[in-house]
Amino acid sequence: MKLMSRRGLISHDGSYVYLCNNIPSPSSLFADVWYTGYEKIGPAYYIERKNMPTHLLTCTLSGRGVLKYQGKTVILKKGDVSLISCHAHHVFYPADDSWEIAFLHFDGVQLPPLYEAFSKGGLPVHNDPTLSVATCIFKIHDILATLDVVERRLITKLIDYHTGSEVHQKIQKEINSTFFALLQLIENDSEEFENKTALLGKRFICENYQKRITLDEISAAAYVSKYHFSRLFKKTFGVTVLEYLSDVRFRKASMLLTYVGMPPSEVAESVGWDLQTMNIHFKKTLGVTAGEFARQEKIKMSLKSE
Questions:
Q1: Position with higher pLDDT, 241 vs 261
Q2: Which of 179, 224, 235, 262 could form a disulfide with 228 if both were Cys (CB 3.0 to 4.6 A apart)?
Q3: Which residues pair with 151 in a beta bridge?
Q4: Which among 3, 112, 123, 133 has a CA at the least distance from the CA of 66?
Q5: Contact 158, 167 (CB under 8 A)
Q6: Per residue in 244-279, pLDDT tens?
Q7: Is the model more confident about 212 or about 221?
Q8: Neighbours of 266 (CB within 10 A)
Q9: Average pLDDT over residues 124-145
Q10: How far apart are CA 191 and CA 82, in angstroms?
């Protein structure tokens, strides 16, 4: 296979397609491909740079690599996808003897909002277990690898001005697929984040139901606003936060009234209610007050023992 880079032929394992697009086009309607490919990197590899006008998309295919970006360091493992702004200072090097990646340098008006969404909540890294992003990169690479240098320069203009050639349409289709795959990773990780956030609040309720806890305290334990937490909790568990808290208290109160024999007033206090509130919930759920429920359970227990 012909291996190309900015300087022409390269000796290590990999394949590049460089489009010679040296001037960024702010008028681009979608995204401009600068260069793309894949490489298998050895331990001597080290890249440190900044002030480049592109965004860099990488997908780890095997091994592990190190990304230093925005003052943080992350180990990239198989399936990890990173999207960074090359204008910012960044460093790449292998964490193992061999690190294999697919990459895409591209630019365009759609990149900044995509990057912002991709990096929301921390470093711009998401895991792609199916390697869908790498598949898109390979398809773009394979299309461009069939062209000679003159054709690549022409394709750069075609991407910029959308003149609609057959090759351009193929590239545009794969760029669209790349964007879709990245957005899907964001959505998947967002759902995982939402589930973890809701579970943090649920755990706080289970550990603190006996106190007079508020929605502000519960959401604070999940590190989000009470409005955002309320929405996530209802989406995850199908009930509101206060409905779940009431259900936990009701189940605990029912057990205490049935098996411990505590007076209703003490039971109410031990589960974070006052007696009146507890009676309202028992009446609404079972049609009887807490005291009446306790008497009924006592009769049932005595009948079982006879």
A1: 241
A2: 224
A3: none
A4: 123
A5: yes
A6: 999 999 999 998 998 787 899 999 999 999 999 999
A7: 212
A8: 12
A9: 87
A10: 19
Residue pair 250/284 in contact (Cβ under 8 Å)? The answer is no
CA distance 201 to 232: 10
CA distances from 268 to 142, 167, 209 (A): 69, 73, 11
The structure's pTM equals 0.56
3-state secondary structure of 261: coil
Do the beta carbons of residue 264 and residue 257 sit within 8 Å? yes
pLDDT in tens, 196-214: 788 889 989 998 999 999 9
Identity of the amino acid at 305? S
Q: What is the pLDDT of residue 190?
A: 67
Where are any strands of DSSP class E within 90-183? 90-107, 125-127
Burial of 32-58, coded b for 16+ CB within 10 Å and e otherwise, reads: bbbbbbbbbbeeeeeeeeeebbbbbbb
For residue 290, report the phi and psi dihedrals to the nearest 5 degrees. -65, -40
Say how many C-beta atoms besides its own lie within 10 A of residue 8's C-beta. 8
Torsion angle of the four alpha carbons 182, 101, 19, 68, in this order, in degrees rounded to the nearest 10: 80
Spacing of C-alpha 88 from chain mean position:
22
Amino acid identity of 178?
A: T
